[in-house]
Amino acid sequence: MAATQNWRLLDVDALDPELAYPEEYLKPQYEPVSTSTIQQLNSQCRGLLQKGDNSEALKIALENAPYGGDEAGKVCNTHSHLPCDFSTFGNQGGDANG
Length: 98
What we know:
By secondary structure, the chain is an all-alpha fold. The chain has a domain at 33-92. It is 56% helix and 0% strand. The protein has helices spanning 12-15, 23-26, 35-51, 54-63, 71-90. Helix 3 (35-51) runs antiparallel to helix 4, helix 3 (35-51) packs parallel to helix 5 and helix 4 runs antiparallel to helix 5 (71-90).
């Protein structure tokens, strides 16, 4: 190799075929979650937050990850997480470690 080659641009993983993962390892093992399901969970989380049940809202938001969902579903899921996180951890002075 030439002395002027930029080593930071080398893809060393491409040089070793044993490091390549098979396609089935890269796909989620769960069924895709629809955007409408995520929107329903988002509404449920908002309702629980309005009632003051912050820990249950956070639990629902964290237990229902949008595996295999589209980008709109992931954005909706993020919008359900943030209010839950702020409501739960904001009561502790912002320290998530308690």
